[in-house]
Amino acid sequence: MKTGIIIYIAGSHKIRDDFDIEFAVKKLNIRADRIEVVSPMAGHFSIMDAWWMHLIKGMSRIICLFAEMADNSELKFTGRELRLCG
């Protein structure tokens, strides 16, 4: 079973223009076959858009994890998790 993760970046902190989302996601050490990011500045703009991308790429288990900015240099999980499929 292939697993896809959606990281939804929430919170009131504004993301800096020079923030490297790919690097921040790699630092989270998530084990998944595919990762999509939902934020205004990178990846997808809605969870549904990222969910659909996972489905067409063959992911059968899809989980949405909520994250927020921590001191403008990294992401941290809020502890909220939503299983969307599988």
The ordered H/E elements are EHEHEE
- How many helices? The count is 2
Q: Gyration radius, to the nearest Å? A: 12 Å
Helix content: 10-25%
Q: Biggest sheet, open or closed, and with what strands and sense?
A: 4 strands, mixed
Mean pLDDT: 85
Give the N-to-C terminal Cα separation: 9 Å
Give the class from helix and strand content and strand pairing: alpha/beta
Compute the number of strand runs. Answer: 4
Please report which band the strand proportion falls in: under 5%, 5-15%, 15-25%, 25-35%, 35-45% or over 45%. 35-45%
Q: Which term fits the overall shape?
A: globular
Unreliable stretches: none
- Please give the order of strands in the largest beta sheet: 2-1-3-4
Give a description of the structure.
The protein has 86 residues and is an alpha/beta fold. Helices cover 20% and strands 41% of the residues. The chain has 2 helices and 4 strands, in the order E-H-E-H-E-E. It has helices at residues 21-27, 47-56; strands at 3-10, 34-38, 61-70, 74-85. Strands 2-1-3-4 form a 4-stranded mixed sheet. The longest helix is centred in the middle third of the chain and has 10 residues, at 47-56. The chain is globular and about 35 Å long. The mean pLDDT is 85.
Summarize the structure.
The protein is α/β, with parallel strands linked by helices. The protein has helices at 21-27, 47-56, and strands at residues 3-10, 34-38, 61-70, 74-85. Strands 2-1-3-4 form a four-stranded mixed sheet.
